[in-house]
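Hi D.,

Good news: the full-assembly prediction came through. Inputs first.
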Amino acid sequence: MQLEQQLRDRLEKKDILLMTHIVLGYPSFDTNRAVIRQMVENGVDCIEMQIPFSEPMADGPVIVKANQEAIKNGTKVADCLAFAAEMTASHDIPFLFMTYYNIIFKYGEKAFFEKAHACGIKGFIVPDLPPEEGESFLQLTAEYEIAPLLIFAPTSTDERMRVLASHGRGFIYCVARRGVTGTKSVIGQDVLDYLKRCREATSMPLAVGFGIQDRDDVSALIGMADMAVIGSQTIRLVDEKGAGAVGPFIAGLR
Amino acid sequence: MGTKDKQGFFGNWGGAYIPEVLHQTFEELNAEFTKCKNDPAFWQDYVELMSTYSCRPTPLTHAENLSRHFGGAQIYIKREDLNHTGAHKANNVMGQGLLVKRMGKKRVIAETGAGQHGMATATMAAKFGLECTIYMGEEDVRRQRPNVFWMEKMGATVVPVTDGSRTLKDAINEAFRDWVTNVDETHYVFGTVCGPHPFPEMVAWFQSIIGLEAAEQIIKYHGKMPARIFACVGGGSNAMGIFKRFIPESGVELVGVEAGGHGIATGLHAVRLSGTDASPGVAQGYKTMFLQDDDGQMKETHSVAAGLDYVGVSPILSDLWEKGRVRFESATDSEVMAALDLTMKKEGIIPALESTHAFVQAFKEAPQLTPADAIIINMSGRGDKDIFTIAHAFNDPSWKEFIIKRGLEYSQGK
Ligand SMILES: Cc1ncc(COP(=O)(O)O)c(C=O)c1O
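Then the structure:
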């Protein structure tokens, strides 16, 4: 089934969906496995798995450190692909890859799509690949039924949003504020106005990420967006309290 | 310059691989840059500024003693060290400063390796009344301490970057993170001919003033075009600066010299185009030849010269390399020390460690040519900033004694 339809089916039963983020190989694949199990058992609707890159330009300190540690621990792209295949076979929710373009480019675009498709991956988030530079990438997303998850930012004009929406599929990832991942966002009037603009630019589901950390943030998004993205916060939690703390945290978000 | 293909591409290289948050700012930057390029008055203002605030035109020095010593070509040195702040970096920075004023931004940020670009940016910010933050790898803060001191004295905030390899590429990542956070008020003064479009083209344009002057000067002194031009290549801005004017001159051979570090075979180097360790990749907003592993993770690089210690290289130079217009060579750390020693003794000139890489290759090739030929070495900067590194490499006893004494005094609270 296509990603958008999977999300819409889930939206029949919930006010808002939850997407979570993990960095593959950080602190280890064993911990990733335990964390994902807890996330799924506690109702997470979609998971983005970040393949670590040495130059994570759009990420904040928590995820930067996770990327660097994962690579230092010897995490290879091939390990990430094998782990992804295991996860999609074990859990009945859509899994996405988030990574920087060089990982895909260096692997060979076509080969990477083929492999990700075989692993059951439903979409790609590539923050440093605007559609202008992603011609061949976008063609391959159609060929392999992997959704290109494009990003809106508060600095995107209405016109730009429509251009992005014309290339995106699955859902639109709305970055809640300027900046990198990890710093808390305040869901104030400016964010709500921005989400209104996002809604007008596309009929695709809207995911909102960057700095969503607690139940209040999530409930503030109900009615304004379709999916809340929890990124750095679970990584912090696992760092501080271990994988076991993730389940109760997720269960308490909605 | 290489032919421009798709927007912002030079042959297969370049582009603008930027996060969406920056899209609008790049639209504005491109629009303003296009206006400036098409406005002859802008270039005039720029040249005027560079001749009053800095020392342009910089001299072309005939190095008679070195020429005699090698017994081949006449060696000329283009003196970018005599620019204000001591390097070619000022050319780009003052140009972007004029652009910032037109765009009305209030704050500038920059990455720096050797500290020369940071220095130049800090002076520009002081002169134009802008707030200024400089990102510098922790490793480079340590080895270019005098520049850190001056930047701070001019009112800039210097942020040591502790991620990754703690060198230039990590400083660039951190500057981008600042930019996506403070994009509305801030301009990122990119320091070299790398990064996303329009930076490679823009920085090459400002730096092209070097070659424009050098072409006139060599004709005046030598009566004809030079046989070869040598420039060191970190990101590639001083090289593009002197090369650009000469690209159509088919008789002039252009030679870029990269950091051989401890030697190519050791893996401890920053050789992208003169070896076989680099491969095509996309990082830091652009596509070029990167030193990376099979997974696309960037490798550690090494050079005694912080400004050459970088994983990528200008997309314009990758194109000129691919098309065979620029030849690339490398110089090791120890060759650099020997050439530096010789240059100081013979000419009384102190090139920066970066610039000395170009001297190494020129010295290897000068004897192959005749006294009727001229070669130009682009001396991108002065060596004063490297005093700690050079004194250490020469194991200079009286300098060491001085540092020990001063350290003792400081530790005793004097
Ligand atoms: C004196 C000097 N030369 C050369 C470089 C290398 O940069 P580029 O290759 O952009 O000229 C630097 C960079 O910091 C520098 O300070």
